[in-house]
Each structure stands twice: as C-alpha cells, then as structure tokens.
Amino acid sequence: MPRTADHDARRRQIAEGVRTIVSEAGLDAATVARVARASGMSVGLVQHYFPSKDALLLFAYRHVMDRIGTRVAQRVAEGEAARGTIAASLRAALREMLPLDHERRSEYRVAQAFAGRSLDSAELAEVGAQTSRRLRDQIAVAVGNGKECGEVEPEVDTGLAAARVLAVTEGLAVQLHREPHGRAGTHPLAEAADAVLLPTLESVFTGTCRQYSR
Amino acid sequence: MPRTADHDARRRQIAEGVRTIVSEAGLDAATVARVARASGMSVGLVQHYFPSKDALLLFAYRHVMDRIGTRVAQRVAEGEAARGTIAASLRAALREMLPLDHERRSEYRVAQAFAGRSLDSAELAEVGAQTSRRLRDQIAVAVGNGKECGEVEPEVDTGLAAARVLAVTEGLAVQLHREPHGRAGTHPLAEAADAVLLPTLESVFTGTCRQYSR
DNA sequence: GAGATAACCGTATGGACATACGGTTATGGC
DNA sequence: GCCATAACCGTATGTCCATACGGTTATCTC
Questions:
Q1: Residue A161: pLDDT above 60?
Q2: The domain made up of B1-50 is a member of CATH 1.10.10.60
Q3: What's residue B2's pLDDT?
Q4: Which residues does chain B have within 8 Å of residue A23's beta carbon, measured at their own beta carbons?
Q5: Which of A196, A201, A205 is best to mutate for the B interface (most B CBs within 10 A)?
Q6: Domain ranges of chain B
Q7: Of residues 33 to 62 in chain B, which lie within 7 A of strand D by their beta carbon?
Q8: Nucleotide nearest to B46 (CA to C1')
C-alpha cells in the first residue's frame, strides 16, 4: 500500500480556504489556483480531491452551512442543560445566525454569496433550502416544547410561529450586515439585535414554564 | 447635428435585458454579448452606452431596485387615497416585496444575485444599503402616521418597529422563494404570507384610527 | 444635398481560468 | 530494500469573455 492521507480532513482544509477567500473577496475571487494557495497546497492536489470546481464549491457551501446548523443545535443543547427558559435558549441559538462578530460575519457573507449563485445551480439551491428547513424545524421543536412546558399557548400554530421567528432572524441578519455600525440611536449591535428579536420571541413565548424540567 | 437617440431609454432597455438574463440564469450568465442579444442590439452598441461592464451592472441593479422602491411607494399612496387603515396599506406595500408572482419573483432573484456579488463591490453594496434604508424609512413614516392617527401606541419606538417589520418581510421573502410550492398545511402562497406578516403588523398597529382622514 | 457627427456594427485581441496530463515523490506492505 | 500505488506537482491547452478598434450608416443642420 502506498502512502495515505486523510481525505475528509484535506477536503475540509480546502473548504476553509474557499471560506476565507469568499468572505474576503467574494465568490468570483475563488479561483482554483487561489483556493489552492489559500489552503497551502498545489492546484493539482485540489484537483486530486475534487473532480470539478462545481463539486468543490458545493462541498464548501455544505461545510459552512453545516457549521452554522451545528452551532445552533449546540446552543439549544446548552440552553437545555442550563435549565433556563426555552425562550432564552432559543434566543441564544438564533443569535448564532446573526453577523455580530468577525466569525459569524464571515460565515454570513459566504452564505450570502452562495445564495446569490444558487440561481444557476439547483444543487446549490438545495443546500440552502435544506439548511433553512433544518433551522425552521429546530425552532418548531422549541415552540412545541414550549407548549408542553407552558411557555407557549396551546392554540399557537407551531409551524407558523417557527416561520415567523426564522423570518425575523434572517431579515435582521440582512440589516445588521448592511449597517455594521449600528443605527443612529442604538449603540452596540448586540442591543439592536435584541431590540428586534425579543419582541417577536415574546409574542410567541407568552407564558412561564410550569415545571422545573421537561 | 447627426442623428439622435434617447440615451436613457436605451440604457433602460439594456437594463431590462440584464434583468431577464439574471433572473433566468444568474449573474454569471450575463455576459456582454448575451445582454446585447437579449436587448436586441449589438455588442458595440452596448459599449456605446456603458463605459464598462461594471457600470452596466451597477446601472441595472439600480434600475431594478428603483422599480421595487417605486412600487412600494405607489402602494402606500394608493392606500392613503383609499382611506383605509394605515396597517392595511402598509400590508399591501410590503407584499410588493414578496416573490408571490412571476414578476416579483423575477425581481427578487435579481436582487438576490446582486446582493451576493455585493461582497466584491462597494458600489453594488451601496445600492442595496440605500434601497434598504429607503424602505425602512417609508415604513417608519407609516408607523409615525399610525401614532398620530391612533393605530399605534405613542410609546412604541418608531425606528425599531420599522426595522422589525422590514426584517420579517425580508425574511419571509427568503422563505417564500426557497419554497414556492407553499408549506405542508398552508395552501396558497398568499395566505401563508399573510399568516406570517399580519401577526407582526398587528403587534405594532394595535389601535384603530380616531379620525376619518389624516 | 452635403457633410459632420453620433448611432451602430463585427471582429480582433489579450487575459484569465478550469481542466487535462505527464511526471515525481513518498510510504505502506512484503 | 523494493515495488506498487496513492499523494502530490507544474505546465500545457483550449475556452470564454471584456474590451479595443476600425469601419459603416443614418439623420440633423445649414
């Protein structure tokens, strides 16, 4: 047997290169040659791990979106462990989607760039759609738990509430990214984000939890 | 004097070509040659009216965003003329931003494509930011009018409410575009849109108008 | 009706890039 | 230690495209 390499690790390394380039200079700047350099390898090696540039970009997109989805899920889990209210842990999770710091801002830019290119490619579009569904389902679960617990009125339409919460979060992300300095009156970004997010959350989570733990 | 042409009309004609191509096949498909063909003219003529491709795209982006902004303003004006509630005319205006029919869907796709490319170009980003500010200001005016009229409680923060309404609208647009068939339970798109939009509007416009006209 | 000038056309050119490909190197098993 | 084979490299190739450019046509003015 010849020498071996960790294919998955290599691919992730390349995807990180894509992420860096795209977030700094946009998707058009992500040529194979530049991606190779950014990942510290040669053009030929990148070709070795991906059959085409399309496959490369698709993988990178999935990579980034998975990271976001995972982080959101993680925050929800943390919230449950901390035994806070469901509304509080959902708030923490949703904030993971907002471009509030360098890391998340970078991810947001990448997601935006790929969303734009999704007009061409059904495959890319599917990645975005899947991520969106996954997020909305996670929110819906939180709302459902809220019903059992007493934080949410039983007659609330779970799916609709989830759609509304996701909509306000995504829309807020758009605005935060366009105006990173914060609006006239409101000072730090974090406050502005809560000022938009919390009223919507409170309109769904109107009650308080009856029992100590689910 | 030699023969003359309507420069503005020509430029708009070209911008329409861009819009068609981008909405059907994405920004990458918008080569100068294809734009020329789609607008029914030669490559040379397109060059005659735009100094560079960047300038061409910038103009086209402005063109599309202006159209959206104008349509929104128009709906608000219509609502005032009809003497309905402010909430009702705002609802009509916001629906102009949603990808509910072919026309608006096409515009949404173009806006999305350009938003993605805005990572490269500060000029493109500025167009998006301006449009966003314009929309939020229009909403803020509506909320302000609502206060005078009695539809909105005086202690509501106008800017924040506007940001929230815009956020939910933009976020809803994202979801509608990704799932054009409508979600499991909800039948036509229009209903689904209202189901998300109206609760948010009602959380701002809680009262009824005291006087017959402003 | 003449000619000046803008409107308009088609092709040439040079650059950028994705991909193909032949070659080199290192390392697992024997 | 040797050899098979994957890991890895650099360059060649052909395509696509934005832009440059020289040429043609129509029309407004006088």
A1: yes
A2: yes
A3: 82
A4: 119
A5: A196
A6: 1-50, 59-204
A7: 33, 43-44, 47, 52-54
A8: C8
CB atoms within 10 A of CB A50: 20
Q: How many CB pairs under 8 A join A and B?
A: 145
Give the separation between CA A112 and CA B143, rounded to whole angstroms.
Answer: 30
Q: Binning pLDDT at 50, 70 and 90, where does residue B183 land?
A: low
Rounded to the nearest angstrom, the minimum Cα separation between B5 and chain A is: 34
Taking CB atoms within 8 Å and a gap of at least 24, the contacts of A207-212 are A207/A150, A207/A151, A207/A152, A207/A153, A208/A85, A208/A150, A208/A151, A209/A85, A209/A86, A209/A149, A209/A150, A209/A151, A210/A149, A210/A150, A211/A149, A211/A150, A212/A83
How confident is the model at residue A183, as a pLDDT? 55
For residue A170, what pLDDT is reported?
A: 97
Residue bearing the bigger pLDDT, B79 or A110: A110
At B3, the pLDDT band (50, 70, 90 cuts) reads: confident
pLDDT at A142 over 80: yes
What residues of A are in contact with residue B117 (Cβ under 8 Å)?
26-28, 113, 116
Distance A36 CA to D1 C1' (A): 36
Please tell me which residue, A199 or B192, carries the higher pLDDT value.
A199
Tokens for B64?
């599309």
- Topology of the domain covering B59-204: Tetracycline Repressor; domain 2 (1.10.357)
Q: Show residues of chain B in contact with A29, CB under 8 Å.
A: 120
The DSSP line for B57-97 is: HHHHHHHHHHHHHHHHHHHHHHHHHHT--HHHHHHHHHHTT
CATH classification code of A68-204: 1.10.357.10
